[in-house]
Design a protein that fits this description.
Layout: H1 25-33, E1 39-40, E2 46-47, H2 58-74, H3 80-96, H4 103-128
Antiparallel strand pairs: 1-2
Helix pairs in contact: 2-3, 2-4, 3-4
């Protein structure tokens, strides 16, 4: 085999470990790796993101709700009612903010919903067996 340097990196993007545990870091990594876009003030001058000044961003709020849902799924026994409530809240936020989210916020919301839904299905199947 040749000793050429690799031009790509391989990352494990699966949402669950081999043991069926949800990976919390996948949602966190995607949010942390994407820098927040600059915010323009009323004069049109771009300013630093308000999230750094203590204000909560929508993406951060969505990740917070997702973390609560994953925590409920990771409980022993899984708190399926609480996890389903988080999915319902995120679905409601998705409906209410349709057309007003940034691309980053869309990606975070879709990723968190996917992880929670898949985790819920997996945990509910394990709990019922």
């Amino acid at each position: 085999m040749s000793e050429e340097p690799k031009s790509f990196n391989v990352r494990d993007r699966r949402h669950f470990t081999a043991d069926g545990e949800a990976r919390v870091e996948t949602a966190m990594e995607s949010a942390e790796s994407t820098p927040s876009p600059p915010v323009a003030d009323a004069s049109g001058v771009q300013a630093e993101s308000e999230a750094e000044g203590g204000a909560v961003s929508l993406a951060g709020f969505l990740l917070s709700l997702g973390a609560q849902g994953l925590e409920a799924l990771g409980a022993t026994p899984p708190a399926l009612t609480d996890a389903r409530a988080m999915v319902s809240i995120l679905e409601m936020l998705k409906d209410k903010t349709e057309g007003r989210r940034t691309t980053e916020e869309n990606d975070v919301l879709e990723g968190v919903l996917y992880q929670l839904r898949m985790g819920y299905v997996q945990r509910s199947q394990v709990s019922s067996s």
